[in-house]
Amino acid sequence: MSAPKEGPNPLRPYYVPPSAGNNTGTPSASQPSPTLGVKYGSSPSATSQSFGSSARNILADMDYSDYLSDPSPSSTATVKALAEQALWKYTSVFLAQPFDVAKTLLQVRMPGSAPPVRPRKFRAVQMKPENQIKRAGFRYSSAESDSDSPTYYTRPKPTGLTPPRRPRPRRRFGSPDRDSSSDEDEPHISARRWSTHILDIKSPSSLTAALSTLWTKEGAWGIFKGTNSTYVYSILLSTITSFARSFFAAIFAVPDPSLSFQISPSAGSVGGLDILSSPTPMASLAIAVSAAGIAGVLLAPLDIARTKLMLTPSTHPPRSVMSTLNTLSSWTLPWSIAPVTFLHSTLPTFMSASLPLFLRSKLSVDPVLTPSVYALAIFVGQGLELGAKLPIETVLRRGQMHIAQTGSQAKETHTVVVTGPYKGLVGTMRSIIYEEGERTITAAPFKAGATSRTTSLARDPERKKGQGLEGLWRGWRVGMWGLIGVWGAAAMGGAGSKGGEF
Q1: Structure letter (DSSP) for residue 335
Q2: Which end of the chain is less congested by CB atoms within 10 angstroms, N or C?
Q3: Per-residue pLDDT tens for 360-383?
Q4: What is d(CA 473, CA 481) in angstroms, rounded to the nearest whole number?
Q5: How far apart are CA 396 and CA 425, in angstroms?
Q6: What is the dihedral of CA 286, 291, 292, 298, to 10 degrees?
Q7: Within a 10 A sphere around the Cβ of 179, how many other Cβ atoms?
Q8: What count of other Cβ atoms lies within 10 Å of the Cβ of residue 475?
Q9: If DSSP codes are grouped into helix, strand and coil, which group holds residue 110?
């Protein structure tokens, strides 16, 4: 018994038929019932058309305005949003580039390497007394001189006790004189140290001193060197990291760590990664670290070119990204700096992504229940991350300049500072702490009742070889100020809620 076309069904007076879907009336011959069509010999095409129209009608009646603010953005709006995001990214890189250049100079620079005086190629010819008299306007004749007068301008004859003087070897015209060089006893000074572009940085740990010296030497172009390469590197790094992370998450059936499933994404995510909401946090952590390592290894040649552009004079070509890449011996990661590069890429991601998981599982600090303690712990953790990253970054920059100088296809690579040696990860750290430069150690205060001589000896500062542990953390101040600025902007409701380094 079919339901009437108009009015409620007397057997079901409180039933309201749905407005979407098939009609409640009797199906016509052209449109058979989808539930009885196959049983009574209706065609499958008619059944599929009925189900398709039913689904379209149901989806058309649904309202997605509560879930999507703009369900169908236009192409113009999409292009405008991408242009604004690219402009914002370039502006942030442009403002941070002077501090990055100064930090790189301090990390690579060999301490105590002031620009030496350039040696003279030709020594001044000493004029003979006869020539001096002729230039004064007098005529000198040997016949007019008295034979009894002593000869003041003749060389005395060697006595028997005086050893005979060895004759000087003849040299070709235009060759530099050995006596004129003040660095004959220093064969370790290479030819590149005589470059006129070497900066005289007074303080080895001052960013402002490095910036002012570079500004005086090269002007505004000097402090913004490598801006375009840094911008391209940052864009490619984030793109390759996101792609590799999503690819591995899809392959291993793990939620993408960059997608947050919490009500407040900024509460539990650090650096754009959300490990807490993942059902398998350890697998998500491994995927995030692996993606960061792959991106760092693939972009290692571009990072070498970026470091080379920062440390070479702004007046020396090439200055473009592609031209600098062409001067490298290979577009792959050299084996000598492969461990340092992989560690530099993966360590910050590992520390920032595993910190929320450690706080929640071991210390019971939750971003929802204890937000203040959680925010303070995240800030301290990012400071520790900066402290662990800077020594590895110092070693990496020296290794990159070593590759750029030894493996470059150009004739000679001039740098604005005398670069320190690269001896591997542990060897370079040991050389910085114990071998390079000198540091002053303040003596301990003298005890009461000590003699005057002992007091004077105790007050004298002691000079020790090497930079000490401070040499591994060059540029830590700009990192801490950037961290404080990002968290300050997040506290005021800015765009830095995810945290990070300036």
Answers
A1: G
A2: N
A3: 888 888 888 888 898 899 989 999
A4: 14
A5: 8
A6: 140
A7: 9
A8: 22
A9: coil
